[in-house]
């Protein structure tokens, strides 16, 4: 979930500035930049409309890709279990490359035509739960022989049909479900949705995403609990205990030549560092035969050579394309399940937009920008379904938090990050490298990641009055039923027998999707049980997501359509009736440079070393 507190929880900084920072966003004229160290730390080096030097954009773009690394690769690795691809490392690498490629495309669309804030797009866990529920239906359960590595021939037509038929039904369901998000976004209906959905609906919905995946985390971690525990401990150590420790790093500047600067690398990349260290240890254990070499022995899956020479067999270049897994098919049950995830994703993204605007030095996003952003995210899900990622796209809260660390809020950095993800998706060897991560290492990462997702959902209760017995009942009942009902349906799949096959499938998917069950009860109870808006958290929730619908000069600079499209449309009277188009206002003649200083274009800083050091490895 997006951070909602004013400080965004980012009170630590990824770099220490040696000397005086030249300019900061929002610094009034005549005020010295070094009035106090505390004031300087709260300022941005680059605002949303600024263009840092090209080399800085590339380095910071790589930083954003690495920040999203854990979430992006986790999704295809989880989906591979439902798609019967546990023993097909090459196809897993193709899925990873595809999701990177599509995430890069959607990021460029969002930054240029969508909400136009520096916000990265990537795979979403909100669609993962209904997707796994669909794949757990009796007709899509993996055949027993696909679970045995010795019986799987990855090039056989039978095996290819098994996994591609499952991917095709996922693709079609996601594509049809994403049309709903496109409609809600471009029609401006997102405001109507936000009127009825509050903290007591969002909290159980998001929390149950993480809780419902406990089985996947346990299954992966259980392949070698020692390696999994090591990975978890390393991530906790880096992200919680060592985050305040700055590491001296050699750097160079024209003024000081070669010198050292401090960098908070543990705070920037805790997940990546934890996985890398565990991955390296597993590699050493593999080459020295510390781990078992027999497939039926405990701990064998901790080896890095389990999937054979997948790196050698992967092509250097592979260009993902729509329909690469075949023609998508549609399942009504899958579509309705995806809709539950799409609604959760939309509401989460609205919070991300506001948090991103605060951290990037932009005014609050107006309604037309939010509508356009949601619509573009729906279009991104449509593209993800067509390309065959098995998932959709959404705004990444982790990268919103990274803005608070690096103090660089320029959207050009995210544009660079989008191009980098496209390049990663085209190089097939990169995706293949990720598939060699041992499953216990992935399981250790899941233990942390899914726990954080659950806690992020529960954190929405800060807006509601949890001293109220009404709210305690709604949240507790929603959470408990969200766990109990799907668990019972999974154990008793034959209990749903209405006589209509299609209806049985719909009910099977919906009632085995924890986030739908919990969110449904939370929504119904919160909107029917009497309670004041303040008690329900609607007042505080609305304040945190308050829209600035007025078209100010700064708002037009940030959220207006690119290439002067907004000014060209201003002569058309019908534009004011289009929810996703800004109604253009002329610039006042008495505007002064000081009144728009917060979004002034800056010349590249003469010394960007302090920012480069923050993200260099």
How would you sum up this structure, described in words?
The two termini are 28 Å apart. The chain has helices spanning 37-41, 54-67, 69-82, 89-112, 128-135, 157-187, 190-196, 199-211, 214-221, 225-241, 265-268, 270-287, 310-313, 332-359, 367-387, 397-406, 411-426, 428-435, 439-458, 469-491, 501-511, 514-528, 533-536, 538-544, 553-559, 565-569, 609-615; strands spanning 121-122, 247-253, 257-263, 394-395. The model is unreliable at 1-24, 26-41, 547-553 and 584-617 (pLDDT under 50). A hairpin with a 3-residue loop joins strand 2 (247-253) and strand 3. The protein is mainly α and 617 residues long. The strands form two sheets. The chain has a two-stranded antiparallel ribbon. Strands 2-3 form a two-stranded antiparallel ribbon. The chain is 57% helix and 3% strand. The chain has 27 helices and four strands.
């Amino acid at each position: 979930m997006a951070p909602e507190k004013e400080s965004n929880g980012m009170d630590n900084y990824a770099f220490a500035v040696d000397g005086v920072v030249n300019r900061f966003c929002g610094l009034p004229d005549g005020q010295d930049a070094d009035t106090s160290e505390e004031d300087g730390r709260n300022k941005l080096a680059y605002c949303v409309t600024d263009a840092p030097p090209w080399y800085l954009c590339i380095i910071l773009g790589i930083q954003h890709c690495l920040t999203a690394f854990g979430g992006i690769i986790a999704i295809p690795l989880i989906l591979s279990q439902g798609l019967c691809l546990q023993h097909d490392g090459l196809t897993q690498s193709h899925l990873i490359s595809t999701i990177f490629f599509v995430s890069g495309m959607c990021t460029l669309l969002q930054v240029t035509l969508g909400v136009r804030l520096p916000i990265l797009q990537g795979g979403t866990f909100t669609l993962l739960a209904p997707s796994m529920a669909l794949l757990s239906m009796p007709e899509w359960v993996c055949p027993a022989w696909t679970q045995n590595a010795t019986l799987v021939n990855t090039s056989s037509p039978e095996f290819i049909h098994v996994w591609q038929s499952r991917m095709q039904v996922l693709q079609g369901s996601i594509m049809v479900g994403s049309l709903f998000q496109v409609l809600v976004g471009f029609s401006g209906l997102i405001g109507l949705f936000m009127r009825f959905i509050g903290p007591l609906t969002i909290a159980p919905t998001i929390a149950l995403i993480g809780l419902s995946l406990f089985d996947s985390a346990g299954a992966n971690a259980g392949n070698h609990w020692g390696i999994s525990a090591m990975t978890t401990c390393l991530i906790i150590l880096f992200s919680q205990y060592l985050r305040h420790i700055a590491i001296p790093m050699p750097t160079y500047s024209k003024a000081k030549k070669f010198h050292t600067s401090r960098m908070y690398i543990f705070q920037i990349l805790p997940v990546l560092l934890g996985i890398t260290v565990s991955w390296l240890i597993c590699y050493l254990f593999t080459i020295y035969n510390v781990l078992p070499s027999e497939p039926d022995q405990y701990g064998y899956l901790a080896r890095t050579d389990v999937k054979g020479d997948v790196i050698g067999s992967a092509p250097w270049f592979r260009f993902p394309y729509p329909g690469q897994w075949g023609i998508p098919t549609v399942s009504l049950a899958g579509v309705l399940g995806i809709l539950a995830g799409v609604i959760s994703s939309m509401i989460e993204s609205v919070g991300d937009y506001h948090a991103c605007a605060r951290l990037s030095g932009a005014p609050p996003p107006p309604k037309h920008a939010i509508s356009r952003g949601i619509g573009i995210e729906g279009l991104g899900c449509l593209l993800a379904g067509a390309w065959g990622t098995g998932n959709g796209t959404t705004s990444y809260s982790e990268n919103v938090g990274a803005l608070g660390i690096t103090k660089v809020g320029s959207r050009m950095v995210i544009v660079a990050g989008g191009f980098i993800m496209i390049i990663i998706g085209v190089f097939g060897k990169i995706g293949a490298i990720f598939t060699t991560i041992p499953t216990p290492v992935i399981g250790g990462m899941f233990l942390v990641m899914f726990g954080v997702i659950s806690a992020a959902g529960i954190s929405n209760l800060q807006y509601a009055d949890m001293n109220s017995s009404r709210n305690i009942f709604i949240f507790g009942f929603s959470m408990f039923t969200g766990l109990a009902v799907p668990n019972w349906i999974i154990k008793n799949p034959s209990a749903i027998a209405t006589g209509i096959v299609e209806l049985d499938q719909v009910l099977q998917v919906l009632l085995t999707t924890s986030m739908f069950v919990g969110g449904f009860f939370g929504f119904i109870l919160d909107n029917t049980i009497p309670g004041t808006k303040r008690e329900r958290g609607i007042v505080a929730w609305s304040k945190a997501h308050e829209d600035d619908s007025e078209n100010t000069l700064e708002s037009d600079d940030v959220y207006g359509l690119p290439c002067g499209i907004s000014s060209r449309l201003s002569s058309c009277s019908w534009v004011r009736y289009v929810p996703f188009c800004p109604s253009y206002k002329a610039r006042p003649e008495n505007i002064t440079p000081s009144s728009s200083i917060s979004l002034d274009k800056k010349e590249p800083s003469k010394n960007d070393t302090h920012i480069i050091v923050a993200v260099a490895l």
